Amino acid sequence: MSAFDLASFIANNKEDEAQKIIHNAMKEFDNIAISFSGAEDVVLIDMAVKAKKDIHVFSLDTGRLHAETHRFIEQVRKHYKINIDILSPDREALENFTREKGLFSFFEDGHKECCGIRKVQPLKRKLATLDAWITGQRKDQSPGTRNVLAFAEKDGAFSTDEKDLFKFNPLANWSSEDVWNYIKMFDVPYNELHLKGFTSIGCEPCTRPILPNQHEREGRWWWEESEHKECGLHIGNLIPTAQQ
């Protein structure tokens, strides 16, 4: 692959053309993968499969997911006839952590350490093998941290001195309604927990249904302040907020 021209890609794509962004990102990079966990990500998979059959998809299994989420991952794998690379935490790091702090330390000292071991470290190992990745992030998912989100960017959190990593967020300007309209229109699989009042779904202890008129992110880490509601997978989102 020749050097990727980010400025040219942004100039030649429109932020409201998600399928085109995905298609062109996969044309630019052979070594690119879709990060899959929720409803937005299956929209990405659906669009990507329509553009290219041999897509690369990975998902994080933290060891604390709902049984419904495991069934959802398998449903997506079979529906699209794709392989999904399931990433797990490092066994030794996780065993040491739970031995020292137990299984619910995040209720006392915050979720960052647990998420770091169960999510960020496995993601970092995976991203080290890629040139680019595609995420289902939306600006309105977490107004305190994702209000500035480009549809294509250099990943400032996971790039290294040796290699730039590029990140595509084709649904940056979509709303939740846009996502669910697409899911209904194209009969896209979704997690059955959505039928039980769950909106943003993560690990079982840290996720609960929301009440009417609550923001979708309020079901995650509800015991913490809203500006802390990133698990570290998209830690770059916190940078603009921290500088304010």
From TrEMBL:
Q: Does the keyword Acetylation apply?
A: no
Q: Which family does it belong to?
A: Belongs to the PAPS reductase family. CysH subfamily.
Asked if Transport is a keyword of the record, the answer is no
**Which domain of life does this protein belong to?**
Bacteria
Q: Which InterPro entries match?
A: APS_reductase (IPR011798), PAPS/APS_Rdtase (IPR004511), PAPS_reduct_dom (IPR002500), Rossmann-like_a/b/a_fold (IPR014729)
- Identify this protein by name: Adenosine 5'-phosphosulfate reductase
Cite the HAMAP family for this sequence: CysH (MF_00063)
Which Gene Ontology terms describe the biological processes this protein takes part in? Answer: cysteine biosynthetic process; hydrogen sulfide biosynthetic process; sulfate assimilation, phosphoadenylyl sulfate reduction by phosphoadenylyl-sulfate reductase (thioredoxin)
Provide one Gene Ontology cellular component: cytoplasm
Please give the catalytic activity noted in the UniProt record: [thioredoxin]-disulfide + sulfite + AMP + 2 H(+) = adenosine 5'-phosphosulfate + [thioredoxin]-dithiol
What the record notes about the co-factor is:
Binds 1 [4Fe-4S] cluster per subunit.
Function of the protein? Catalyzes the formation of sulfite from adenosine 5'-phosphosulfate (APS) using thioredoxin as an electron donor.
- Which pathway does this polypeptide act in? Sulfur metabolism; hydrogen sulfide biosynthesis; sulfite from sulfate
Q: Where are the transmembrane segments?
A: none
Which species expresses this protein natively?
A: Marinomonas rhizomae
Location comes to: Cytoplasm
Q: What is the lineage of its organism?
A: Bacteria, Pseudomonadati, Pseudomonadota, Gammaproteobacteria, Oceanospirillales
Q: What is the uppermost EC class here? A: oxidoreductase
